[in-house]
Prior knowledge:
Blueprint: H1 8-16, E1 24-27, H2 34-46, H3 66-70, E2 77-78, E3 97-100
Parallel strand pairs: 1-2, 1-3
Amino acid sequence: MARKIPDYRKHILSIRNMDMDDDVIICAFAKSGTHWVWKITSILRSGMADYNGKENAPVILEFFPAEMIRHSPKTRIYNPHFTTQGLPKQTFDKKCKILFFKDIRKMF
Length: 108
């Protein structure tokens, strides 16, 4: 089943109004190693490095409906590819952690 692409303006507004508690946001350009950082962060958050056979894809805010993200388990790790204006308003007011890549090298 193909996913319907949402109206981007409505989608950004719904993300901007999303609640965030103790979530982690990885801020970097696409193709700069964000999946590796997401994987390491998820291992650190879970407290174990055991492979459980399930691959949980990183939540890229642009591609998933806000309702689906809201109902996912807490302590989520987000991997957005847009600027800070697109992040939820509570990102900077609550206990969210932001992982910012200071130096990158794009991988192709």
